[in-house]
Amino acid sequence: MRNSWRSLLRSPLVLVVALVTLWFIATFLVFPNATLLIGTFFPDGRFSFRALEKLVSSDRAMNSLWHSFLLAGTLAVTVNVVGIFIVLVTDYFAIRGARMLWLGYATTLIYGGIVLAAGYNFIYGRYGFVTNAVGNWFPDIDRDWFSGYFAVVVVMTLATTTNHMLFLGSSLAKIDYQTIEAARNMGAGTLRILWRIVLPALRPMIFAVTVLTFLTGLGALTAPLVLGGTDFQTIAPMILTFSKSSGSRDLAALLAIILGLATIVLLAMMNRVEKSGVYFSVAKVATPLTKQKIPNRAANVTVHIVAYALFLVYAAPVVLIVMFSFLDSSAILTGTITWDAFTLGNYATVFGTPSVLRPFVVSVVYSALASAIVVVGMLFVARVVHKHRNPVTTLIEYLLHIPWILPTILIALALVMTFDRPQALVGGQVLTGTTSILLIAYIIVKIPFTLRLLKAAFASVPESLEDAARILGAGPLFTLRTVLFPLVIPTAAAIMALNFNSLLDDYDAAVFLYHPLYQPLGIAIKLSTEGENNLDSMSITFVYTVLLMIIMGLAMYLVYGRGRASTGRRRRVRPRWA
Amino acid sequence: MIRFDNIQVRFGDHTAIPGLNLEVKQGEFFTLLGPSGCGKTTALRTLAGFIEPSQGEIHIDGTAATRLPSEKRSVGMVFQNYALFPSMSVWENIAFGLKVRKTHKAETRALVDEIAGQVELTSEQLDKNVSELSGGQQQRVAIARALVLKPRILLLDEPLSNLDAKLRVQLREQLKNLQRELGITTVYVTHDQEEALTMSDRIAVFNRGVVEQVGTPEEIYNRSATEFVCTFVGAMNRLSVEVMQRLRDAGAALEADKASYLRLEKVALQRPTEASDSIRLDGIVAERSYHGAHSTYTIHSHGSSIRALVAEGGAAPLVAGSHAELYIDPASVLQY
């Protein structure tokens, strides 16, 4: 790592990267958000509380604020209860069929957001299969039983436990088993060990995932929009509603700013807790965790029953969605399934009708382009930031993390409101309403994650490799190309796959920024959930969902599954130039 | 061959090397020895061109090299962790520098094969990925990669520290033989005194960025110039005031107000057969540690513990609690 200004200014490549990055930051990260703030608090060039007054006097807006905090608070409890239970039964306790249970719980890794909300709506919603089936027997049933606060909490609880599976699971694996053995040796029972040894060691991670869950609840858009009904709307859907009219855009902006402020405060709290105290193993030779048997028979049976019941709750929608994708729409409507109802017609419609396939293609193209651009761009930025430490690169790094602390909705709204008129920073162009603005938004939201991981990848390459290349006569570009890039490319490819996955079914940014002629998948799926006369689009959505699950499952396998397989021995032959 | 002229290296406010003056001769195996953080690696990296000194000049073959980039200094370097490129095969690693120089393919092949033979790498190993090799084999690859460009100087930064004890002894002999065979000027960095003593033509002992002594291994060990060199290189007894009083009472011309040291092997437990000025001390054996070829005795005498190294196979071993006679030649006592 060099901190001299001379080395920074000596390289044309570094200069170009720094200048392009600074332009991007100024144009798309700082300027739009500043415009949003100024537009809200300085509407006529003078400071004004007008937006705040409008907010306080609007029952809908105030209700949405209350609902958001209520949802976030509820989720902080429910997600922790379910998430910790899931991690314990799959990774800590010896439960029969734990691997299968894990697969069931992990289904939310391959479908979430609008797809998950739509899936639940199609199954349990007003016109859903289960509601229809039960309605056949009990015609007086309240068809809106699965809507409002209850439905949103259920769906979001199930969707948000992925954080626990990924992060809490890996924290649990790092616990030194010798600490458990030591506690047992001193006479502690299973429950006491769990309560006094295991959970305290997981406390920082539990806190971190709780904050993430709280933030997810606070900024929730798709679940309240699809399942919240008229009585339970939160901040994000309100922002969307208010942003549609020019008279209430300041209200939308203020709500987005409140959301942003809450996010910043919570992330700051999380950072503070992360920095205090060491809870992980301090052993030099940590022993891997061994699964614990539950000695009490009744407790063991109860845990098994609850674990399998949860498995059904998680796996049922996936199984039903796959099944429904092969059913004709009338069977779903009537809630009666016969062998004759099974068909490949839905798939034929999707693949055989260009207009139906179009949202899928649009999303694939947007996701692929955005994830490729952000990874390639951040490869250079991460390299420069890692190699040259000085006030400019430090500032660049901090500013590139802005999207991390701002909700996607706020970023999207700021882009819409800023680029709806010609702007000098983009050559006097109007971007709102064009196809490029959604691509820009996707690139923006993926920058912090990509930069952080790529910087870590560069940091993990020993500096001596570069020294070795240098002493053997290799120049900086040659070293970058032949020594460094081959080492960080696997990480870059994994990030690209994860970015691609998460953008494929995006709704939050798309709903503000999509081009009417190029509707992405998230929008198409959301439209299919509206009203009762959308039977065909419901069936098509099931096909979309199955295709999404296949693509996401494949990407997850390529990132995680293949990664593990390729750590084995690998033989290389002499290169052709030899 | 190599000359450091008043080299100063600073990292911010910290001065790693205040002013280094050193000369390495052509074809010499020269070792920079010292504890962690003493500045030996910094000196080596400055010579390699990775660190720019804040003051002073480095001369290589009489030419000022301070401002020359590392690739222009004709130095090959073996890093502590070998720094082999993990994405390349053994062959590609060794040929890397030749590829950078755009050497002709046939010549590259010949040069790689030649150096691989010299460091005892087989053709099969050349096709392997570096991660498939053992630590010792990786070290050979690192040496081959450094030597294939035929540099004038070879720099080795603790290249044996990652290996197990037995392999370390074996490889240091091979390394020394290879250096002798090639006649290449070598600068070797280590904190291991045994390595330095067995391999080097000359040694510079570093302490806090300053060279305390430059000399042959024998000079460093037997005629340590400073108290630091004396205590850092080899094991030592620090003689107590009471022991020194006893020696002076017996006629030894030793100064009273100086720190006095005696190497373990200079303490005899039997009266020397030849005429000598040895002075006898009496003590009680506190402990005997058996090391195979020799034993180390700890003997309490005149209020202090004195250790003595005795070759096995001679007289019957002394047991703990028994009386012992110690014979010390005052000429062997080092005073600072």
UniProtKB/TrEMBL annotation, chain A:
Keywords annotated in UniProt: Cell inner membrane, Cell membrane, Membrane, Transmembrane, Transmembrane helix, Transport
Entries under SUPFAM superfamilies matching the protein: MetI-like
PROSITE patterns in UniProt: ABC_TM1 (PS50928)
A biological process from GO: transmembrane transport
Presence of keyword Iron: no
InterPro entries: MetI-like (IPR000515), MetI-like_sf (IPR035906)
Membrane topology: Multi-pass membrane protein
Main location: membrane
UniProt-recorded name of the protein: Iron ABC transporter permease
The species this protein was found in: Cryobacterium melibiosiphilum
Automatic annotation (TrEMBL), chain B:
Annotated GO MF terms: ABC-type transporter activity; ATP binding; ATP hydrolysis activity
Cellular component GO terms, alphabetical: ATP-binding cassette (ABC) transporter complex
Domain ABC transporter: 2-233
Keywords, in A-Z order: ATP-binding, Nucleotide-binding, Transport
A Pfam family per the record: TOBE_2
Family matches, as PROSITE patterns: ABC_TRANSPORTER_1, ABC_TRANSPORTER_2
SUPFAM superfamilies: P-loop containing nucleoside triphosphate hydrolases (SSF52540)
Matching SMART domains: AAA (SM00382)
PANTHER family: SPERMIDINE/PUTRESCINE IMPORT ATP-BINDING PROTEIN POTA (PTHR42781), SPERMIDINE_PUTRESCINE IMPORT ATP-BINDING PROTEIN POTA (PTHR42781:SF4)
The protein's name in its UniProt record: ABC transporter ATP-binding protein
Native organism: Cryobacterium melibiosiphilum
